[in-house]
Specification:
The protein is an all-alpha fold. It is built from seven helices and no strands. It has one domain: TorD-like. Helix 4 packs antiparallel against helix 5, helix 5 crosses helix 7 and helix 6 runs antiparallel to helix 7. The chain is globular and about 55 Å long. 20% of the residues are buried.
């Protein structure tokens, strides 16, 4: 496994070493932003789910709103709510809040943030990120993106396992005698 990872790292390094910044930007745009009728690998949940894209965007927006968050309205900072980066940023927010509750020794809030992370992961990233990453690896021959896709898919899987293991003590405590 480590030999394979080292080889992938070398491929990424070689690919990036041969590319200019402009080449990299062109690949990024061709991979994620443009295509007919759609780009090869759009990084939006709504493209990978059986629900309508609008329904997916409303669902994730409700998660964000529940925690007092809203999408930026500033020019140059706008992204749709089902974009991979937005969903990962929301998970970061929840993990940050979780760490604050651990510092404050607030077990009730800790349980809530852990449950929120598990619920969001199960309902959203775990439902589509593996499909997106498989699509990226199968449709685009860019070592950097292929490696990043594998790491992202592994992160989602392991994060869900980790959160689930952290919730187990709360579930046992709530079951009672």
């Amino acid at each position: 496994m480590k030999t394979e990872q080292a080889e992938q790292g070398k491929n990424v390094q070689n690919d990036l070493g041969k590319s200019t910044y402009e080449d990299f930007v062109v690949k990024l745009i061709q991979t994620f932003d443009i295509g007919i009728p759609e780009p090869p690998c759009p990084p939006y949940e709504g493209f990978y789910r059986s629900k309508s894209r609008t329904a997916v965007m409303l669902e994730v927006t409700e998660f964000y709103r529940h925690f007092g968050l809203a999408m930026s309205k500033r020019d140059g900072k706008r992204e749709l709510p089902d974009h991979l980066c937005v969903e990962l940023e929301f998970l970061h927010f929840l993990a940050f809040k979780e760490s604050q509750t651990r510092i404050d020794k607030d077990s009730k809030s800790l349980e809530g943030y852990l449950l929120a992370q598990k619920d969001f992961l199960n309902r959203h990233p775990a439902q589509w990120v593996p499909k997106f990453c498989d699509s990226l690896c199968n449709r685009v021959d860019i070592p950097f993106y292929n490696l990043l896709a594998r790491v992202t898919a592994m992160f989602i899987t392991h994060e869900l396992e980790l959160i689930t293991s952290h919730i187990k003590p709360f579930l046992k405590k709530n079951e009672g005698p």
